[in-house]
TrEMBL record:
The keyword Ribonucleoprotein applies. Its main location: nucleus. Belongs to the snRNP core protein family. Coiled coil: none annotated. One of its GO terms (biological process) is 7-methylguanosine cap hypermethylation. This is Small nuclear ribonucleoprotein Sm D1. Plays a role in pre-mRNA splicing as a core component of the spliceosomal U1, U2, U4 and U5 small nuclear ribonucleoproteins (snRNPs), the building blocks of the spliceosome. SUPFAM superfamilies: Sm-like ribonucleoproteins.
């Protein structure tokens, strides 16, 4: 499974995104595009200590609330371009086993007969792969 497809399953999870310029973004992941562009809501943006006032001024222009001592800004939402992301830190309580299951691979295996279908079908599969014929009732 590709990393992007895994991240697409993380909808409505609280994540921390670290950018290549040192900025840290914490918020709720809403969408991830195939190019790994991410949209987060209820965001807290922390600027690195080495950044100048120009980065903070950009946050002021975007309508965020800025705290001068901590260089932390609260935003309603943010779009992050995929090639600027260094890492995405996932929550500890996240069940990775259920997210790493590839649904398309399971469907292919079910279709080929290598995996039993758990949909609760009433008919059994015959040995040749087709559905078994019903037995007729005697009157």
């Amino acid at each position: 499974m590709k990393l992007v497809h895994f991240l697409m399953k993380l909808r409505n999870e609280q994540v921390t995104v670290e950018l290549k310029n040192g900025t840290t973004v914490w918020g709720t992941l809403q969408t991830v595009s195939p190019q790994m562009n991410a949209t987060l809501t209820d965001v807290k943006l922390s600027l690195p200590n080495k950044s100048g006032n120009c980065a903070a001024a950009g946050v002021f222009l975007s309508g965020g609330q800025h705290n001068a001592e901590q260089k932390t800004t609260a935003l309603q939402y943010i779009n992050i371009r995929g090639n600027t992301i260094r890492q995405i830190i996932l929550p500890d309580a996240l069940n990775l086993d259920s997210l790493l299951v590839d649904e398309r691979h399971l469907q292919r295996m079910r279709h080929s007969g290598k995996l039993a279908d758990d949909s609760g079908r009433k008919r059994r599969m015959d040995t040749n792969g087709g559905p078994a014929k019903r037995a007729r009732r005697a009157l």
